[in-house]
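Case study B.
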Amino acid sequence: MSVRPNAGAGEAVAVPRLPSLAERLRGAWDGDVAYSFRRSPVAVVSAIVLAACLAGALFAPWLAPHNPFDLKTLNLLDALSPPVWQEGGKPGYLLGTDDQGRDVLSAIMYGARISLLVGLASVALAVVMGVSLGLLAGYAGGKIDAFIMRVADVQLSFPAILIALLIDGVARAALPRDAHGDVALFVLILAIGVSNWVQYARTVRGSTMVEKNKEYVQAARVIGVSSWGIMGRHLLPNVMGPVLVLGTINIATAILTEATLSFLGVGVPPTQPSLGTLIRVGNDFLFSGEWWITIFPGVALVVMVLSINLLGDWLRDALNPKLR
Amino acid sequence: MRFKLLIGALLAAAVVAGPSAAKTLRWASQGDILTFDPMSQNESLNNTFSDYIYEGLVRYNKQFVPEPALATSWTRVSPTVWRFSLRRNVKFHDGSSMNADDVVFSFQRVLAPSSNMKVYAQGIKETRKVDDYTVEIVTDGPNPVLLRGLVDVKVMSKAWATKHNVLNPQDYVKKEETHAARNANGTGQFMLKSFEADVRTVLVANPNWWDKAEGNVTEIVYRPIKQDSTRAAALLSNEIDLVLDPPTQDIPRLRQNSAIKIADGTETRIIFLGFDQWRDESPYTDVKGKNPFKDKRVRQALYQAIDIEAIRRATMRGLAVPTGSMIAPQVNGYFEEFAKRLPHDEAAAKRLLSEAGYPNGFSFTLDCPNNRYINDEEICIAITAMWAKVGLKAKLNAMPRATYFQKIQKFDTSVYLLGWATATFDGLYTLQSLIRSPAADGKGADGNFNLGKYSNAKADALIDQVKTEIDDAKRNQAMRDAQRIHAEDIGHIPLHQQVIPWAMRSNVSVFHRADNRLDGRWVRVD
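Model:
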């Protein structure tokens, strides 16, 4: 039995005290969610793969065989070596090297860092923006609600990638050329984050409108809790469930958006390549038979995104009371 | 099926129409045309299109000897006065007739302050009209290479320029937009039909051209394709007929394809690095209070840190000829003694940097184009890695050619990469543009691409002597001495001579020019 007050049956039960978020998470871990995780081989495998990707990216400076950004260590004469199992492959370069003699494996590990950073940070930004605006719209209603939701509607009529391109383009035009490299990463996070807030806002607004008429909210209002207090302490914990699921799946989308932008050449600069940049650079060599420069970063991207998506899928099912 | 029918219909149409059928040449290279003003940017691709649309008094034949074009004959009235008889009944694309007024106007225009083509008219003091079809060019001294320069001084219509307010060349560096930058009215083989920046340019044959082309092309479609693999794919899929700069990595594969043929050759272009040698403090370095690039030891350290052989092998895949000379072997004024480079020696580079007072190196920005020369950005990346090994932290600033040329032509750079082809096939062109100090008032052609303002009074005197010396032996000796001084000063770091294989569909035949200009007169599409 779930302890979540909005999980259907919870409504009838009088809740004397709201359990804290930590308590509820702990309860969830001991209960159904963990059980469902153990029972789902897909979830376990995805989690292991994702953990490996995360560890590889996070500890790249210690784990990677080379530092592809330390120009001193590059040797141009090692350029374009094929993977080690192919004829002409050089030991020490497991997945081969690119046209500047950078180790492809190391470049992928460092690139995944950038990709994951952009993915996580932009989703965090989108969640913060979307959840606060959604809460506000749902709770305040009236003109504020109408205004926020019309903005959201307008934005929904554009594909997210176009909005990201627009923000990126404006930032490029507004900032001095020399500053591009230094702030490109933040611009990218901002662009992807801003282009994705709408989904969260809509989800949260819907749940808020349901929750705000429930007894515990009315009780809080009666005893004089301020609107901000109600939104932050009472409503927020109860509308976050769907957001978690959405956020997990959106990390994968954000990573792909970043890769797309970088592939188009408007993402992170080549001096700090993400997986998308690596794929773009490698694409020039696909014809000439040097397939490893683009294929391996591509495979890494697919594996990472796929495992996040599968985990997200499982999480959605696990948190859905109707499927239990 | 419908497609096959269409092809059949087209073939039938071609048979019926006979030899006069439209033949389109679709070609591509990585960057776009910067402007259609023939006096605004002295850049090879630009000049190629100026050659299609505009004509000079003379033009090159296949041996690169000037032959009559808009002038039918010429005589030297005195050592400094040349008289040209103009071709009659030549019409501009707008239908107006070309006469001496247009020629005189064009020679004034090419020497205007905003002109980027002054070097081709160097030494011309005055151009005057004798009658409607005769002009005289007065030079400020005997000028042994006048005709070679005239090839690239294009004749524009004075009436058209007046009407559209383009009496002066477009000032490209100041980002000026003019009518002549996007429209053209010449007398040449092709007329500009449409120009969409970064998309495509279409030219159609001029039905009223005074000459008959050896080739059969009636339409030229040019497309800039920046991405290497896309450019190669477009050629393989028959979307275009010719690629001027096929990606070096794809050339072996293209050679094996029977539908593709490659025209090989070296270009007169030398790729080199230049440095800010005039400011007391250089803008894009972390060295304050002095300019490290003024120190010859620093320049030599930068030079000796470069492993050119690795660049030739890995970055250029063998398609480059490393050299220590600023002038290519096909050019008059090339001397083999300068081709030998200073050896690659990291230890020596480090020692030189310590002696110069930079034991821990310093950091600076390397400006580099990314769609101008073959593998330009890759070369710059490789060089920054080599410099890092001797402690120099170079930050790479790679940008598209249009913004790049605007930046560096304002001398707004500390270290830059440039390529220079000798369009006149005479060394003076290179010495005067790259090595001669710019004139104090910035006027004239001296040093107009000496973007780091390298300056040596002795070299300047020798180059000035080359301009007017008519004794070949003395002239060559002066060119040799000037190059020796420059090499000893390490005024620039020459890297390599470009190899330019053109890749085309096997039904296309062209004349491969060492100045990398695809000449419209000699293209056949069968």
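Residues 5-11 of chain A have pLDDT under 50 and may be disordered. The remaining cases will be described in the next quarterly update.
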